[in-house]
Design goal:
The chain is an alpha/beta fold. The chain is built from ten helices and ten strands. The chain has a five-stranded mixed beta sheet, with helices on both faces. Strands 8-7-6-9-10 form a five-stranded mixed beta sheet, sandwiched between helices. The structure holds 5'-O-[(R)-(carboxyoxy)(hydroxy)phosphoryl]adenosine and zinc ion. 5'-O-[(R)-(carboxyoxy)(hydroxy)phosphoryl]adenosine binds next to α5 and α6.
Length: 336
């Protein structure tokens, strides 16, 4: 079975051909990061235009690299939600056109389900059910992966996502967009013990996250020091931010696994590339006797292979879309 996956939900135009659910035959990613960096974040209008310019070349290269013709495909999978609406529309419409021209089924994929699927591409033996922490620029979720296509969200952020918190703290320190990776790099040179940052108290669902308090605390710390003309050690501050975010994510995930009875825990989303998050969650899982899974670094950010992989499982489960498929900016995983 050969599935083409197309991703255009944010600032990466990506396409990939995956064979038999888990074998990556090609993966092409055209990133717009450099262009958005000038503005300190993704500018939706620019993102849509670049997707429009790049998508044909990216898809053609993915097919060529895999040595596959449109006719060889079993289906065309595409991210339809969630994300920037104008960006998603480019991928959805392109995929519809391809499906129509080739006579192949169109398979809709939820972006977060795609991130979770990066673990199938990394671990051939991994099968649901398991618990997955998904932390990206737009989401921080603890998700029960009940089957390849059924999910239950047991915890979510009440405000900022973990990646957003990384990026906003980084911006306050003057690091360029996207700041998560810069904090990761600076942390390697820093001592996390200089700054004591707060862990949030979240009333209600004990598995929900909140990152806006941490972000505000860091921004205030930086502004106060600037007013007093004191230069903080940004390596140490980065190390503290990273340690705190990693601890918050880990604590809630372990608690959820214990309370729901899961022994297998996976990590996914852009923030899964973070050295501190990987190490802290991995160590906590080891201590608790849980099996831990995390995507290969190259699969942590947005890519087409994750959409092709999840698209394969959707296709096998009979999940296809007709010509009325639309892009959706916000959509819970439980509604797919
Ligand atoms: O999954 P993703 O590529 O896009 C969304 O679906 O949102 O995630 C992007 C997020 C950004 O906030 C970025 O700063 C963060 O992932 N990120 C990292 C690292 N690499 C990417 N955050 C911390 N450390 C990293 N190494
Ligand atoms: Zn993503």
């Amino acid at each position: 079975m050969l599935i083409l996956g197309i991703e255009s939900s944010c600032d990466e135009t990506a396409a990939s051909v995956v064979k038999d659910c888990r074998e990556i035959r090609s993966s092409v990613i055209s990133t717009q990061i450099e262009e958005h960096r000038k503005y300190g974040g993704v500018v939706p209008e620019i993102a849509s235009r670049r997707h429009c310019e790049n998508i044909l070349g990216v898809v053609r290269k993915a097919l060529d690299d895999a040595d596959v013709k449109l006719d060889d495909l079993d289906a065309v999978a595409v991210t339809y939600a969630p994300g920037l609406i104008g960006a998603l529309l480019v991928g959805v419409n392109f995929a519809k056109g391809l499906a129509m021209a080739s006579g192949k089924p169109l398979v809709p994929v939820h972006h977060i389900a795609g991130h979770i699927a990066t673990n199938y591409l990394t671990y051939p033996e991994l099968e649901p059910p398991y618990l997955c922490l998904v932390a990206s620029g737009g989401h921080s979720h603890i998700i029960e992966v009940l089957s390849y296509t059924k999910f239950r969200v047991v915890g979510r952020t009440r405000d900022d996502a973990a990646g957003e918190c990384f990026d906003k703290c980084a911006r306050a320190m003057g690091f360029s967009y996207p700041g998560g990776v810069q904090i990761d790099n600076a942390s390697k040179l820093g001592d996390p013990s200089e700054f004591k940052l707060p862990h949030p108290k979240v009333a209600g669902n004990e598995f929900d996250f909140s990152f806006s308090g941490l972000k505000t605390n860091v921004i205030n710390l930086i502004h106060n020091s600037q007013q007093k003309n004191i230069q903080l050690n940004y390596n140490n501050l980065s190390a503290s931010i990273q340690k705190t975010i990693a601890e918050i994510l880990t604590k809630k995930t372990i608690k959820a696994a214990e309370s729901l009875g899961y022994k297998k825990i996976a990590l996914a989303g852009g923030v899964s590339a973070n050295t501190g998050v990987r190490a802290t969650l991995s160590e906590a899982c080891r201590k608790h006797g849980f099996k831990f899974y995390m995507p290969e670094k190259s699969l942590c950010g947005d890519n087409g292979a994750m959409i092709a992989c999840q698209g394969s499982y959707n296709f096998l489960a009979g999940i296809t879309a007709d010509e009325s498929l639309n892009a959706v900016a916000t959509l819970s995983m439980e509604d797919i």
